[in-house]
Input
Amino acid sequence: MKYFGLQSQIRRNNANSVLLLLMFPVVFYGLAWLFFFILSITVKPEEGVPPVDVNHSFLLTVPWITIGVVIWFTVAWFSHSAMIKAATGSRPLERKDNKRVYNLVENLCISTGMKMPQVNIIEDDSLNAFASGINTSTYAISLSRGIISKLEDDELEAVIAHELTHIRNRDVKLLIVSIVFVGIFAFLAEMLFRSLRFGRIGRGKKEGAGILIALLLALLGYLLATLFRFALSRNREYLADAGSAELTRRPLALASALRKVKADPLIEAVKRKDIAQMFIENPQVEEEKKGLSFATLFATHPPIEKRIEFLEKL
Output
């Protein structure tokens, strides 16, 4: 794999962000139309009740779908930093708390001419790190206590350079977009499942069939949204690894760091799969392997052995 350069990757990721913003609403509207279509052919109209007019019903729901998605996206977009901090238990790390880390980040930022992001720490002895944010005022790098204490300076610098590359490449913004939209489908599927299970919305056959159809389509939407996210996630890790090697001139330092991370990446506080994908190594991956989870078929990271092999060839 070849590293194509910073500006090319920024343009590519900006284009992918726009594509994601367009594709997710298209999926929403497509599934809404499909809902009314399936309802019209599977549910017989009751006496005195006209059959479902697919296009008319769909057009009536479009404004409500649009308003709901915009509100959800807006709230999630502006609250993502608090959401991520709550999900990972991270807190700010000041210069006085750890000059070593702060200086490593600062020196790399100076060498690249970028504004220094906020540095956070996760109080966990496992080894992991991630970058987050949507603009210069919210960009942050979070490091676990374990990765700070167990890596040598050149290894830690390489990990920090990897996360800075995610910020420079606009990977973090792309991830936030995908997390927000996947979250909508997950919320709809859970709400509809609870409604079907506890019978809180409608008790007639038509209402029950409608909820079941909506639930199946919401699950389909969740699967499609996850696949969109999956299609964009693996390549970014190789590119960030290459970016780290380019910044530090020491690809073997990152390879060494990844070997140590592989031995213990599990961050206990991280329970959400959408947040887990932001880390340098998915902190849930070992748990998923133990449970032979279906989610392993949709791994968000390439195997760490292949990343090490890639770095050793640079």
